[in-house]
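User: Structure please.
Assistant: Input sequence and predicted structure:
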Amino acid sequence: MATWASLAVRDSLGPWGAMTEATAAERPEFLDRLRAGDRAAFEELVRVHQHRVYGLALRMLGDPAEAQDVAQDAFLRAHRGVAAFRGEARVSTWLHAITARLCLTRLAARRRGPAPHEDGCLAGVADDGLPPDRALEREELQAALRRAIADLPAERRVVVLLRDVEGLGYEEIAGALELPIGTVRSRLHRARLDLKAKLERFLP
């Protein structure tokens, strides 16, 4: 059952948090083309997934330039490692795993506090034509949520982003991060509690 915190993340992110339907880039024959070194298939992989890969990196790192570097590195590693990818997870989950690990490595190397609070971290929210007062309230929630997510410890931040923004299942996250599923659930629970505490004033 979804918690208030998880719903707040999805609702305020608009299209970033929406689940997309299965695409041709998730079908077995597409993976076969990738493994065979089909250049057109790899270009399709980048086209389909580049925005979500970049978005995850941006929310993890809070820096557009770093996020761009990570996104490029993620696709480079995917290109080099696709022959060893056995297809046990979705292609999108595999890409999220590569991206998440790259981000965690960068955050560990920083050896300083939370990620920067970049205004663009949650960019891409659609204009729903809300009345001015509702639009202002939503804008305030987005800003508060952006700060709250950035303030989460990296290991909690990545779990809540993969679950509540990217829509991965618990087992997918556990596989992507190479963690026990109980650890994923525990970190997600703590992350949601942290977010709920920081966003309490927005509760109905």
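The first helix runs from residue 4 to 13.
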